[in-house]
Amino acid sequence: MNSKNKKIVLHQMWTTKTAVFMIFMLFLSAGMFAQEKKQVSGTVYDNTGTVLPGATVIEVGTKNATTTDFDGKFTLTVAVGGSIEVSFIGSATQKVQITSATKNVDVRLQNDGYQLAEVQVVAVGYGTQKKSDLTGAISTVKADDLVKGTISSTEQVLQGKVAGLNVIRPSGDPAAGSTLRLRGGTSLTASNNPLIVVDGIAGVDINIVQPSDIKTVDVLKDASATAIYGSRGANGVIIITTKSGTKGVSVTYSGLSSVGYVTDNLDLLSANQWRNYVRQTNSQDAVDYGANTNWQKAIEQTAISQSHTLTINSGKADSGFRTSLSYLNNEGVIKNSGLERLSGNISAYQYLGDNKDVKFDMGLFANIDKWKPVDYRIFEYAYNLNPTIPVYTPTGEFSSVAGNLYYNPVELLTNRTVDNERHRLLGYFKTEVKFLNDFLAVANISLEHNAVKGGTYKPSYAVLEGMTEGGYAQRTYAEYTNAQGELYVNYNKVIDKHNISALAGYSYLENIYEGFGAQRSGFVTDAFGYNNLGAGYRYRLGDVYSYKGKSNLVSFYARANYSYDGKYLLTATVRRDGSSRFGENNKWGTFPSASVAWKISNEGFMDSTKGWLDNLKLRVGYGVTGNQDGIGEYKSLSILGVGNDSYYDPVTGTWSLAYSPQQNPNPDLKWESTKQLNIGFDFTLFNRISGSFEWYSKNTEDLLYTYEVPQPPYLVGTMLANVGEMSNKGVELTLNADIIKGSKFNWNANLTLGHNVQKIEKLSNPTYKTDVIYSGSLHGLAGMSGQYSQIIAEGYPVGTFWGFRNAGLDANGKIQYYNAAGDIVAESALVDADKTDLGNIQPDLTLGIGMNFTYGNFDLGISGYGMFGQKALNATNMMLNDPNRLPAYNVPDDFLGSGITSSPKYSDYWIEDASFFRLQTVSFGYTMPLGVQKKSKLRFYLMGENLAVFTSYKGVDPEIGLNAQNGVNGVIDQTGLASPGIDRYNNYPRPTTISVGLNFTLNN
Fold first, then answer.
1. CA 291 from centre of chain
2. Which residues neighbour 751 within 8 Å (Cβ) at sequence distance 6 or greater?
3. How many angstroms separate the Cα of 793 from the Cα of each of 759, 779, 801, 819, 994?
4. Distance CA 618, CA 134 (A)
5. Residue 47 in 3-state DSSP?
6. Residue 199 CA to its chain's centroid (Å)
7. Is the link from the previous residue into 712 a cis peptide, with omega within 30 of 0?
8. pLDDT digits (tens, 9 = 90+) for 849-868
9. What pTM, to 2 d.p., does this model score?
10. Rg from Cα positions in the chain
11. Closest by CA position to 722, among listed 585, 622, 593
């Protein structure tokens, strides 16, 4: 082979080897490239540094995607050299290049100003969703929008903020709570309050959380949203998410000092007006005691209150904590009343692993309340007493004049010791584990403990019980503990245009409650107070009591969410609850729901509306929920108890009390079921106005009530059974508008409207029958023994006033009445058949309104709320307008010109329109940036609360509570059915408050 041919062969061999080598290396590098993928973790923030749950993270050029969790964190396996794209509604999309050195990625998205309302992330129970993806009726209130001021009951922060949610605070008593009603009540015997969920812990006391610790409040209204809570969701669910450690280090102090005073009292006769009446009528039995006493003012005071909160926050990528300490001293405008509270909480989180696949989360809340309950009888006595009687005698003792209900109210407030103390504790520990990329397992254990102790001593020289009992002492103690365990798994997957998420879980709840009390009278000395009950020598049967009970609730639940192309959304949930509270035949119940939504504005045929209609979504949901809260334990069982009978025991030679049946068994007892249909629209106009409209129909079946049953065959004459039906139908409107958005001046306004119509549909069945339930007792009012002002009957709402219609006064000042035929008759001619519907306590419309203005560093906030169309029985006015009161008792100023000569009789003459609008708060503040980078800030503000009430109601306050309160011991009826809407000497004045506040935040 010549050299030329050798070169050709060698060249060919080299070329072949080179080609083979190049091909081999190409495949090798391609294989290496295909294998070089890595798991990338990160956190997504908005432009303010707040984490963004629900943001979409996708590997560019692929369908590989995920979404951020509740803490804004994500994990995604991507190719080295590629990039990820992070997007979120309302923010500009951002790309991030991935290299071999990339481990953790922090992405800060900038606001693009489009559909800001849709950015919001909402708690939906066992998870969160973007507001834009909701299919149920859920309203959210952020911390900045909550009611501010001197808040002693956490429910107050929601007053007027959520359409369809009535927050009724019955009085200005700092120790009094509020009544919550969402879309009307659903029960006759159980609690009608919504379920409270705090950081995922269901059924807790809302006052365990202080307003300064709240991040957001999400109110779940319809059954499709609340069915995930099954037998506890019929009255709605309020989910409170508290603040937790955020990125960076900060220290915040908030302080508030306030002055409260009474602006509205009943206009009763002054001492001089009383004397003029006596002279003009030549009253021979009138006694002038020489003083000029305004008894209402005598029991009142100027209230000086203060609150202080210190918060420390520290957070970084893998760990963080937040702790706060608060002190509140809310002095009441009635002497010797008020509330003192010390509260604190700490929360912390810790991530483990390079990809932060494991997270530990814990929280601890605790507070101590101390208060002195008010004896509500003081208001009746203050209205009764002759204004010429002095508070004190010349020797400095409390004055005392003989007479029925004629006791010195200042003495009642002073000469007795009543101390109550409540301890609340809530702790939880949560573990989250991510696995298989798309799964998140959560285990959550919690413990809530609530204990109340009370001590009362009425010395032997104190009027009423003190003198009659020779000294009276009482000690009480009550506590409950809720231990819960939750275990659930979330699944989230994005496949092209399909977004799928699912949830399955298990829950266990154990409730244990117990208490005891003792009382004694007949004390030789008052020196011991309530600290030595054994020193009392008088005791009776019933002076000592104790009790204990336990219940369990076991639950399985699941939820599935599906979204296609961001246009069509579906949610389905189911929960199965087993409760120890109900009968053997109905221990378990199933509560399903389904809802769909259509984002109409995302359709192609809506492109022409993009300039003015930024969002339009239709929602439809239906579900079944239950109510088992408020039903006592052991109600389905036969119970024995000590009766009134005795028997002779020949063994001991003594008489003993006999035990007898106290309750019939009912193995069919079960929870009340509420079926609800909701249709809603969400909309955004001109990128400035956003809102929602809801229509709902809610029907509650199997209402529990205690019915009379025959004896025999039953051993006891009553039985608790599921029989009745009740409906609530209504509409709601929520609006939020950025009226002006400028570089210096901004004006935002919000409005909520709600309308609900309630009706009892059924009270009887073939086995258990009742035509009417009488409520609104007037017992205790002069001449009203055994009388009722309201009925619960088929075809009427709860709280319907039932009685005689008045026809005005006749020529002699006597109140005339209409009979059933419409004829005007005298009182003596009336019969029960002449009674009719006199209106009800249900408002036709509820309203909340707020406006916020900012100009530079100045801010102005105004908020108010109102209720319209409801009726109230002014029983106080009815009893005070009695011609037989003078001259011994006081009367209203306008009574002298009324011409009334009739003795008090219940009729619609005393029923008033209780519509009102309250100017709730007005605040004006200035914020001063501090530091070189202006990260810290100092804010001063001035605030007024309860500045004005617009109403035609003649009583002290038109906002009358739904729950009856016993004036002696403060016992509250939680159903709201005993005496709703009745003003009867029980209206603790609501103060007008002026406050000065300071907020200081130091950021690193």
1. 46
2. 733, 734, 735, 736, 847, 848, 849
3. 9, 21, 11, 21, 45
4. 10
5. coil
6. 15
7. yes
8. 999 999 999 999 999 999 99
9. 0.88
10. 34
11. 585
